[in-house]
Amino acid sequence: MVRRLGDLEDAVMTRVWEWNRPVTVREVLEDLQQERSIAYTTVMTVMDNLYQKGWLRREAEGRAYRYEAVSNRAAYSAALMNEAWSVSDNPAAALVAFFGMMSAEQREALRDAIRVVQLDGPGDGTGTPGR
């Protein structure tokens, strides 16, 4: 089961995802401090918690760690959507309601995604739809 990230967890993961490289607690702290007053130990605890939960991997660097995302934001969003959809007592109705909430741009992105999935589906192994 995927649990939604808390506000501070999301703020940390957003930076890790956007920077797309191993980061230190100090780097994340300094960026977060541009928006809020926050202690080094708080950021360190959040990043350790994210490591324990499997969202981050880490590698020792001296007495500190460098943290890196295990997956990207798209995978996290997909897992949240899948979890929400799978607990519905009427998945078709949930999808209809979800699609009804989408903007025109989101519906177009959905159409693009469906085309990609159809191209990667069963076929002759060439990436073209099945015959």
Lay out the secondary structure.
Layout: H1 7-19, H2 25-32, H3 40-52, E1 56-61, E2 64-69, H4 73-86, H5 91-101, H6 104-119
Tag the structure with descriptive keywords.
disordered C terminus; mainly alpha; about 130 residues; about 10% strand; elongated
Topology as a string of helices (H) and strands (E): HHHEEHHH
Rg value: 19 Å
Helix content: 55-70%
Secondary-structure-based class equals mainly alpha
Characterize the largest beta sheet: strand count, sense, and whether it forms a barrel: 2 strands, antiparallel
N-C termini distance: 37 Å
Report the uncertain regions: 124-131
Family: Belongs to the BlaI transcriptional regulatory family.
InterPro entries: BlaI_family, WH-like_DNA-bd_sf, WH_DNA-bd_sf
Pfam families: Penicillinase_R
Protein name: BlaI/MecI/CopY family transcriptional regulator
Characterization of this structure:
By secondary structure, the protein is mainly alpha-helical. Helices cover 57% and strands 9% of the residues. It is built from six helices and two strands. It has a two-stranded antiparallel sheet. Helix 2 (25-32) packs across helix 3. It is elongated. Pfam families: Penicillinase_R. Belongs to the BlaI transcriptional regulatory family. It comes from Streptomyces aureoversilis. This is BlaI/MecI/CopY family transcriptional regulator.
